[in-house]
Design goal:
alpha/beta, Rossmann fold, globular, binds shikimate-3-phosphate, magnesium, aromatic amino acid biosynthesis
């Protein structure tokens, strides 16, 4: 089994829930990069966006990604992280990157009432356009693409099956 698994995908695709379940089954550590940033900076992400800027958050995100070591770790990445070439390169070089491919509708149901800055500042149509523009980038960056509309338990099971099959 691979040493470091990074989960990517749009906001609400289930990275954190699936990641926790996957880590539990593999006996790996689970790290949520957004939570690591919030702990490290002692600020919530909406606060970081509002008091500084999205760019400031993107720089933090990159910095925290460079600090992660892929040893028996399942890493949940923020939805925007793989969109930037410098992050996509790190993921491709150091991690087995798994794209949780979830429909926009399922993602939207989970995020529509959230305080995520991009959700607060976008209309549903704008979010769908963002989803459409990011999907090919997730596809390009990943080494494994998993259909993720089903339950987190089923998705975690599918990932383990595929990893064993292909010996990623
Ligand atoms: C973002 C997704 C969020 C968080 C930030 C920006 C994005 O993470 O990193 O609000 O650009 O898609 P989740 O994908 O875990 O919600």
């Amino acid at each position: 089994m691979v040493d470091g698994i990074a989960l990517i995908g749009f906001m609400g695709c289930g990275k954190s829930t699936v990641g926790k379940e996957l880590a539990r089954r593999l006996n790996y550590h689970f790290i949520d990069l957004d939570t690591a940033i919030e702990h490290g900076e002692q600020m919530h992400i909406p606060q970081i966006f509002a008091q500084f800027s999205e760019q400031y958050f993107r720089d933090l995100e990159h910095q925290y990604l460079t600090e992660q070591r892929p040893h028996r770790v399942v890493l949940s990445c923020g939805g925007g992280l793989p969109i930037f070439a410098r992050n996509a390169q790190l993921l491709q070089e150091n991690w087995c990157t798994v794209f949780l491919d979830c429909s926009f509708e399922a993602c939207y149901r989970r995020i529509c009432h959230s305080t995520r800055p991009l959700v607060q500042n976008s209309t549903p149509d704008q979010l769908r356009a963002l989803y459409d523009s990011r999907r090919p980038l997730y596809e390009n960056c990943c080494s494994l693409q998993i259909a993720a509309d089903s339950s987190p338990f089923a998705v975690a099971g599918d990932i383990i099956k595929q990893l064993r099959l292909h010996r990623h």
